[in-house]
Amino acid sequence: MILEYSVIESNLNCSLPIIISIPHSGTNYNKNFLKNILLSKNELQYSEDSYVDELLIIPIKNDISYVKALFPRSYVDVNRHPLELDPLIISTDIPNFTKSRSTKVQNGIGVIHRVSAYGNEIYDNPLIRKDIVNRLLNNYFPYHKTLKNLIKNIKNKYNNILILDFHSMPSKSIISKDIDIALGNNYNLSSSEYITGKAKEYLKLLNYSIEENHPYSGGYITKNYGKPESGINVLQIEINRSIYMDENTLLRNKNKMKLLSNNLDSLIKFLNIQLITGNNII
Prior knowledge:
Strand content: 15-25%
Number of domains: 1
Distance between the termini: 30 Å
Number of helices: 9
Mean pLDDT: 95
Shape: globular
Helix content: 25-40%
Largest sheet: 8 strands, mixed
CATH superfamily: Zn-dependent exopeptidases
CATH topology: Aminopeptidase
Structural class: alpha/beta
Low-confidence stretches: 1-5
CATH class: Alpha Beta
Order of helices and strands: EEEHHHHEHHEEHEHEEEH
Number of strands: 10
CATH architecture: 3-Layer(aba) Sandwich
């Protein structure tokens, strides 16, 4: 069954214990948004997790449960706490929320981004509070409402479920070594060591260089929904963009994308079997 809001795409299939989350691959830019910013659409596209949704097209077509944001993260970032509001882009004073002092907010990439991937200011003037509230109500909360419903329905059938939160990372964010894929489980607080270990083991068999919790350990979705002691596991999967696309031109490498897409589908099928048959998930 397809469940849709105007700003997200989703599917529920209770016959599988896995949910795919795709929060940062949206490309539907609001015309009013583009008309009232300082930057070009092209510059904002460098903030996208480009083509991650396309990499997952096989399991999506095969009816897996998933939720996908259709809007860009520069408009609303659903992988943030809703109170990670940047006071510098709001025209009126807001309460002194603790979340407004987070590192993400200080870097200009809170729930409403203030800067682009290049660090350039997106807005000429601060946003009015009504605009921010509308973005949260119409974009942010529908995504999370859908994800919560998927979790609730699938958890009713399975003792252990897995949310795979898919992202891509710029190769320049990898300083110390070459990493193809980073698995983030909030240092085993969001997903069991068993599941993370199985994912790491399988990806290594496919000849990918894997790191755990480096350079990313998991964002808001991972930390907020992951409760492995209750059978709800969340694993963030960060894919190095250089292994499937040209990061400068944002063009796909079709052959590399096809190989990676097949391998991700294979990984998901493998993890599905582990969840159904595994006795030592926690």
